[in-house]
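Deliverable D5.2: sample structural annotation.
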Amino acid sequence: MTGFNVGRMAATAILFWILAPFAAAARLDGMPDGSGSYDDLVALFQEFLAWQDPERASGDRPNRDIAGAAADVHPDYGADAVAARVAKMETFQERLEDMAVVDWPLVQQVDYLAVRSRFDQYEFTLKVTRPWSRDPGFYVDRMLRLTFADLPLAEDETRELQVQLKAVSLLAEQAMNNLTEVAADYADLAIFNLSNADGVGHGFPYRSPPPPGVIGWYADLAGRAAEQQPELLDAVAEAKQSVEALNGWLIENRPEMTGLGGVGEDYFNWYLKHVKLMPYDTDRIVALGLRELDRLWTVLALEQHRNRHLPKIELPGSGEEYEARIAATDKRIREWLVDKEVITIPEYVGELDTNVPWIVRPGGPNFWEHVQYRNPTPDHLHAVIPGHRFDGLVERNNTHPIRGKITSGARAEGWGVYLEEGMMNAGVIDDMPRVRELIYIFGIFRAARVPADVWLQTNEMTVNEVVDWWRERTPWLDVDVARVDAEIYLRRPPGYGLGYTVGMLQMQHLLADRKMQLGDDFILKDFHDTFMAAGRLPISLIRWEMTGLDDEVREFWPRERLN
């Protein structure tokens, strides 16, 4: 089995990887009994990745979409191109099914299910979600990020930006040709984003006031080009005209855009099982989310009562004061992780920055800022160390040909949410009782996402209805953060929003299993290090690998292919 580098993880995690390839093979109903070897699986996965996102000989460079993922500047998603992708994807699936998985050791069987989930995800996109024909934002996102270019650019970077700007007219043309089954929510969100600042600005350069939507960002780029790189002005102007033309086309045709945004209950249940590899259907997930929402409101009420005579944590008075709070938080968490033997921090982990910049907004802080500015601990645990930035760095140092190239959203977000309340209970803020309240408030919003995410995909709620439902149940939640979150979780791959809390519940389930198995021999640091060493696979697969319990994964093997 190909080794991989996770830095200097604990001996337990390393021993796990030495022994795992020799673990007894499971033989569960539905496992393929074909001719392909594990090496064939690795080769097939590499071929799939190269086909899914090929390097383009034309010199076009990837842009970024709303989820921060690489995206083609002007992909071809016409009917013939999509039909060719579907046919190719079906050949990949046929080859995947012809593997001798029943004879492989357990750790390789885990890899097989992980690869199959990625194949199923892409096939689901091709056959069900079809964003190129249902979602104008599929094109609008690709028009936005290139306007963030930090001028002046070097000669080669200038050529790249000119290619991207020239592509905008082709992208707009594709949009108007391909968008034949647009969902109403998708149309309204795209029209809003073209002409309005979203009020949050995830990853956007800071402007005060922020430009009014994508069209405003082209005006911003033109203004900077006029002062710093006038040779870009014609290309910027032509691109801006194409964006404005698409906006006008959407407004004109909006009355006919009446499709549903969600994929529907049957498809969503298929997706939860085959792609997210979750052992829950929509009904159970809604019940889990509502129960967790009740629990968190209860513990918040009790915590606030306990702390009623303590001073509240006030917002900082300046950016400098906020930066000092971040620095103190980072130092305290890193020292605590080491001193209390919570997790191994590899030597390559250095400065990890922060997740929420200092912004003075006319209406006051948004939801995230209300928590983060008061005390950075909740989001630092979740998104910096040992959360997303730390987690992502470990993944980038993972050279395994499969596990280094797969990320489950519920694994990444579930780990981050688990760290908030989990590390609190392990003692990281024992001397900061008011911060416990902030962690519970974070958890409330994550729990509220769970049922709403299901209702968006089953078309029981619109985006606006979800925004209202969330705001009634979440302290400090402003309309902009609520709308942007609803947009992300409707338009990202289905079920991303529920992955935060449900992934956290899966983490707790795994920890409980290991504690019960090991008893007094359970060591938290070894548990965390072994979990990190497994890669960012769906947690149900990591649980099977770490515990040997197959009660969840046995349900995944019987295959139900998409029509």
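Annotation notes: The chain has 23 helices and two strands. Residues 1-19, 56-69 have pLDDT under 50 and may be disordered.
The annotation will be released with the project's public dataset once the embargo ends.
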